[in-house]
């Protein structure tokens, strides 16, 4: 059964497309700009770039190689190498993280749908009003309605098994998204006052550096590159033996980072041009507050709003399908659920946890966990706590069980392995200690 669903998926997907399609999503467009705005702009960008091209690179290479060698998703891969019981839990941790991400991911997906609907119905300008976003989030009905709708779409695709169609959509969608992003960036950075935002985002100001910058950038790196959530093991397992792992990693890295930087250049200059930089700390709502103002002031803004939110919606759906699919297939493969049962369990958990996140802005707004609303708490729990642990487990698996040499040999079957020195250095000496420090700091910081 496992083989059947695996090969069906693999025959239709190129690794790069699949990995890039799952990598580019709300993380790049919604999450990256608000974190960059909040954590010092240029200094956040610099830390992010360094992490992505050293650490991120190492983790993508490792996870996809382990997947390709074993032809299994994380739980199976850990078993394959005969990891200890304790370490096997690491495989499960990797596999279970998407189950905690996809519910709140779908809440944000719901926000995108709502904005698309607003622009489609010709009311785009109302979205640019100062309190529009706040009003929207404080309405429990609206939050739950759009979240449930988004979840239904995701689950219909999973139940209907049309995920291959979805990949085809993303193939067409990506180039249009890049093109539109460039148009919006051009407009955004040329607004009066926007240059301050461009400088804020691109020029590092070292006085803004703190451990929080690193914690946030690391979490974002995991999230955006789909690392430490089992996804890349699974994609690796679909990967043909003759694909150059190093090259595909590089492509995914560069493409994903480029989209994030474009999103930063769309949003952050607008925060300066339209709000004098007051909203830098707005958090998860930043994109929804800043971009409607840009669209409102530009020619054909209503139309641009429709196309933009449609593309973001498509990117969000492809990502949420990949997240949910990975949970469903873990349940199928490891717990021997039927596909229907696996999908039903996943959908139920999504609905429960996502509703809690959606209500955290209104009915449950008095509920604060470590001073965070419910959505931010799930975001923190997965990105800053669970993913560092999952990544540590992967590194320990490589160092203690699989051995670096084995990974190296596998990579070298198809690649020159140009960044081998970086790889070895990061995985041998840096990764585990760095992750432990980050983990402890972020957990202590939450209290
Ligand atoms: N990397 C995606 C993003 O940046 O939005 C999130 C994601 C999507 C992670 C799909 C994992 C995945 F399977």
Automatic annotation (TrEMBL):
Subcellular location per the Swiss-Prot or TrEMBL entry: Membrane
InterPro entries per UniProt: Na/ntran_symport, SNS_sf, YocR/YhdH-like
Short name of any one Pfam family annotated for the protein: SNF
Chain segments annotated as transmembrane: 41-60, 92-113, 144-162, 169-189, 209-233, 254-274, 294-324, 345-365, 385-402, 422-447
Topology with respect to the bilayer: Multi-pass membrane protein
Highest taxon listed in the record's lineage: Bacteria
SUPFAM superfamilies linked: SNF-like (SSF161070)
UniProt KW Cell cycle keyword: no
Main location (coarse class): membrane
GO MF terms held by the record: symporter activity
Keyword field: Membrane, Symport, Transmembrane, Transmembrane helix, Transport
One Gene Ontology cellular component annotation held by this UniProt entry: membrane
Coiled-coil regions listed in the entry: none
Family, per entry: Belongs to the sodium:neurotransmitter symporter (SNF) (TC 2.A.22) family.
NCBIfam families documented for this protein: Na_transp
Protein name: Transporter
UniProt source species: Lachnobacterium bovis DSM 14045
Lineage, broadest ranks: Bacteria, Bacillati, Bacillota, Clostridia, Lachnospirales
């Amino acid at each position: 059964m496992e083989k059947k669903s695996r090969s069906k998926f693999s025959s239709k997907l190129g690794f790069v497309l699949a990995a890039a399609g799952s990598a580019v999503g709300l993380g790049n467009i919604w999450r990256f700009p608000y974190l960059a705005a909040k954590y010092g702009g240029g200094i956040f960008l610099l830390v992010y770039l360094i992490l992505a091209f050293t650490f991120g690179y190492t983790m993508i290479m490792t996870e996809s190689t382990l997947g390709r060698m074993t032809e299994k998703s994380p739980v199976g891969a850990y078993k394959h190498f005969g990891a200890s019981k304790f370490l096997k839990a690491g495989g499960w941790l990797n596999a279970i993280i998407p189950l905690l991400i996809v519910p709140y991911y779908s809440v944000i997906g719901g926000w995108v749908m709502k904005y698309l609907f607003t622009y489609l119905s010709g009311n785009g300008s109302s979205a640019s009003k100062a309190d529009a976003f706040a009003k929207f989030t404080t309405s429990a009905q609206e939050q739950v309605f759009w979240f449930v709708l988004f979840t239904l779409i995701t689950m219909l695709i999973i139940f209907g098994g049309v995920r291959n169609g979805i990949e085809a959509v993303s193939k067409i969608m990506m180039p249009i998204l890049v093109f539109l992003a460039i148009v919006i960036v051009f407009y955004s950075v040329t607004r009066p006052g926007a240059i301050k935002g461009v400088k804020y985002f691109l020029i590092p100001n070292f006085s803004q550096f703190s451990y929080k910058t690193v914690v946030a950038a690391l979490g974002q790196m995991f999230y955006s590159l789909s690392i430490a959530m089992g996804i890349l093991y699974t994609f690796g397992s679909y990967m043909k033996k003759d694909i150059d792992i190093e090259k595909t990693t590089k492509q995914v890295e560069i493409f994903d980072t480029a989209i994030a930087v474009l999103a930063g250049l769309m949003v952050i200059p607008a925060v300066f041009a339209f709000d004098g930089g007051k909203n830098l700390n707005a958090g998860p709502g930043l994109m929804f507050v800043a971009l409607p103002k840009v669209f409102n002031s530009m020619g054909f803004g209503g139309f641009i709003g429709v196309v933009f939110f449609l593309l973001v919606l498509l990117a969000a759906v492809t990502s949420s399908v990949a997240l949910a699919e990975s949970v469903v297939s873990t349940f199928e493969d490891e717990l021997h659920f039927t596909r229907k049962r696996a999908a039903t369990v996943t959908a139920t958990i999504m609905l429960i946890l996502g509703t809690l996140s959606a209500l955290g802005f209104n009915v449950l707004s008095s509920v604060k966990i470590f001073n965070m609303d419910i959505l931010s708490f799930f975001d923190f729990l997965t990105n800053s706590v669970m993913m560092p642990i999952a990544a540590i487990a992967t590194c320990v698996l490589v160092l203690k069980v699989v051995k670096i040499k084995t990974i190296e040999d596998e990579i070298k079957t198809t690649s020159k392995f140009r960044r081998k020195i970086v790889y070895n250095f990061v995985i041998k000496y840096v990764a585990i200690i760095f992750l432990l420090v980050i983990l402890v700091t972020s957990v202590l910081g939450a209290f």
